Amino acid sequence: QVVPVESGGGSVQAGGSLRLSCTSSVYSYSYYCMAWFRQVPGKAREGVASRDETGTLTYADSVKGRFTIDKDAANNTMYLQMSSLKPADSGIYYCALGAGEVCRGAGLMVPQYPSWGQGTQVTVSS
């Protein structure tokens, strides 16, 4: 199964933590990229964090120091560890994946990723 499947969303109070999971067989490849995006109604989907084909991690300014991508290759899973959550972090979180040449320059650019999950809801209350 290559198409990503997200899980781990839920409701949490401000200052709390959640860990999102993205599972896909693409992680068995040596050349792949992945990214997390989030979206709220009436607003464009925005990049949150990404891992490029070399393993370099990139984070949006809004989440730097609070969110971290972790890998568990044995279980075909990438995690987004989210800490010190704020109400502004609420939204539907999507995992996006690519492999091979498509990964070059993908970063946090929505159009660069060919494979998307269905999303998982994160709600942070004040």
Describe the protein in words.
The chain has 126 residues and is mainly beta. It is 0% helix and 47% strand. The chain has no helices and eleven strands. Strands 2, 4, 5, 6, 9, 10 and 11 form a seven-stranded mixed beta sheet that branches. Strands 1-3-8-7 form a four-stranded antiparallel beta sheet, with no helix packed on it. A hairpin with a 6-residue loop joins strand 4 (32-39) and strand 5 (46-51). The radius of gyration is 14 Å and the shape is globular. The mean pLDDT is 94.
The end-to-end span amounts to 38 Å
In terms of quaternary structure, what is this? single chain
Query: What is the molecular shape?
Result: globular
Low-confidence stretches: none
Q: What would you report as the Rg, rounded to the nearest angstrom?
A: 14 Å
SS content category: mainly beta
Average pLDDT level = 94
For the report, how would you describe the main beta sheet?
7 strands, mixed
